[in-house]
Amino acid sequence: MSSPRTVRTRLMRQAAIQGIYRRRGRKNLVSAATEEDLVRRNFDADWPGALWLTDITEHPTGEGKLYCAAAVAASAAFMTTGATASLT
User: Max Cα separation, the chain?
Assistant: First the structure.
């Protein structure tokens, strides 16, 4: 008598399908500084346009990678965003 796992494995092989591979564990990138803190967490700008806050994030997709970016002026009430499939 076969175990359920071997039966499932055989049936999936016959159907030419496979399960989804899940990533194991994620690094805590929030506490790890990736760049020097140039503004020392002081987000008060002396004049409009003096300080901009930006972020770029890479998202893996089925068709490749998607890069999302945002930029916010610390002294203004507007934000600009963008998304692209390449960084060039």
Answer: 77
Cα–Cα distance for residue pair 56/71, rounded to 1 Å? 9
Cα(18)–Cα(52) distance, integer angstroms: 46
Cα separation, 71 vs 34, in Å, equals 18
Domain count, the chain: 1
> Cα(9)–Cα(6) distance, rounded to whole angstroms?
5
pLDDT of 28 above 80 = no
Q: How confident is the model at residue 80 (pLDDT cuts 50, 70, 90)?
A: low
pTM for the full model? 0.42
Give residue 29's domain range.
4-84
Distance of alpha carbon 43 from alpha carbon 51, whole angstroms: 8
Query: Are 81 and 69 in contact, with CB atoms under 8 Å apart?
Result: yes
